Amino acid sequence: MMRVCFLSFCLLFAAPIAAAMPGCAPGQDEKSCMMQAIWESAAGFPADKRDRLKTLFLNTLALSGDTALLAEWEGRLDGEAAPQPHYPDYLRERAEAELREADWNRFLQQAQAGLPPFNIGRPELMAAGARLAPDAATRRRVTDAMFALAGPPQRDARPLEDFERGDFGHVLSELAMETCDLAMFDRAVQLTVEPDGLRYAFWRARITGNAAPLAARVRSGGNGQQDTRHVREALEGYGAILQRGYCPA
Fold first, then answer.
1. Dihedrals φ, ψ of 89, to 5°?
2. Judging by beta carbons within 10 Å of its beta carbon (0-12, 13-18, 19+), is residue 47 exposed, middle or buried?
3. How high is the pLDDT of residue 11?
4. Residue 3: pLDDT above 70?
5. How would residue 44 be classed by pLDDT, with cut points 50, 70 and 90?
6. Closest by alpha carbon to 123, among 133, 140, 111, 137?
7. What share of the chain is helix, strand, coil (3-state, %, to 5)?
8. Where along the chain do its domains lie?
């Protein structure tokens, strides 16, 4: 009887401990822990899907500049990070060309009216313009115009009913993550089609300064052997932290 009670006692208290294990322990090297969690979340995929994720995984880790950790993972996965080819930044080039032809007032007028070149890819082109802004006030003018064009969040709308709103939400969230603007991020992410998405959770964690608790979500989020989106979103989200570091406290 005592043995049964002791076993029940152990199981009762072991369950919360086991549940906490998937996270990154305090003081543990975050990069090692998080990359381990991301790769473990791919464990259920067939070998060919894991093979296709290897290069993306290693390229993401390479953003950190941690050559020792990268070499360790290259050995474990029997692969190498592949240098990314340099592609022209067409959006930046289009925004620069538009600004050469006109001032910021004209840039915003054209964007708000949806006139060429803003008739295609308007959210992304306006975001490129925001990154070219010469000062914070001009950048704010552009992002304010983007919020106005997106309109308020529509929680009951189907994803394809207003895809431009979702695109505005995505690029505005990215701009806010880059500039460490938490209030803007929390406003922008509500415009996206997946406000609670893992990518955005990592982007928000870059601003707030602690992604370690997300390791548990990464490990538990794999949903079968077909959809690799969970892993790709984790890599894209954490990649921003590896590349840029955390925002100043």
1. -90, 90
2. exposed
3. 32
4. no
5. confident
6. 111
7. 65, 0, 35
8. 90-244
